Amino acid sequence: MRKVKIRRKTKETEVKVELNIDGEGKYKISTGIPFLDHMLSLLAKHGLFDLNLKAKGDLEIDPHHTNEDIGITLGQAFNLALKNKNNLKRFGWGFVVLDEAEVRVVLDLSGRPYLEVRPKNIKGYLENYNFRYFKEFLRTFVNNSLITLHLDILKGEDFHHILECSFKALGLALDQATSLDKRKKGLPTTKGRI
């Protein structure tokens, strides 16, 4: 089983993550940021991995540190759970629509962290959560999971719908990329190393 339990503690935050890549989409999330709780539950549900995530942080200041450290810890959890990359599909993509919003996510479990989000900025703010926080979460997740991630917001007016599509599409792409393919022997690369 590809399971991991990880904890990150700083003077600003404490984040605990239990992740099972081969799960069923079960989740228990408590970050102190209600909108992020909602988004992470969508990520786990549509990614079909089990996620138990608890975070405490200096939310009296703002969500920045907590949001960032959740991305770091969740990224590290994925990286550790996927330490053995033999037989991985490696690439994944997801397209999700919600009413007027449409988002595409394409990723590679490449071992090379890179994030591309298009467009670079959109307007929107929900329950103490904005586009800058969303991109910062993705950046820290990508840098610590060591994946290449492209996220394209193809359409959308409602900020909530856009972010909901984004987290669902990321879940779908992660599920696909982390799936095992019995036809593949060894690492999914011609280099011999990821």
Describe what this molecule looks like in 3D.
This protein is an alpha+beta fold. It has a single domain (3-178), classed as Ribosomal Protein S5, domain 2, CATH 3.30.230.40. It is built from four helices and ten strands. A four-stranded mixed sheet has the order 1-2-4-3, covered by helices on one side. A four-stranded mixed sheet has the order 5-6-10-7, covered by helices on one side. Helix 1 packs parallel to helix 4 (159-178). The two termini are 20 Å apart.
Structural class: alpha+beta
CATH architecture, by name, is: 2-Layer Sandwich
Number of domains: 1
Q: Cα distance, first to last residue? A: 20 Å
For the biggest β-sheet, the strand order reads: 1-2-4-3
CATH class category name: Alpha Beta
Question: Helices and strands in order, then pairings?
Answer:
Layout: E1 3-9, E2 13-20, E3 27-30, H1 34-47, E4 50-57, H2 64-81, E5 91-98, E6 101-108, E7 114-118, E8 125-126, E9 129-130, H3 131-145, E10 148-155, H4 159-178
Parallel strand pairs: 3-4, 7-10
Antiparallel strand pairs: 1-2, 2-4, 5-6, 6-10, 8-9
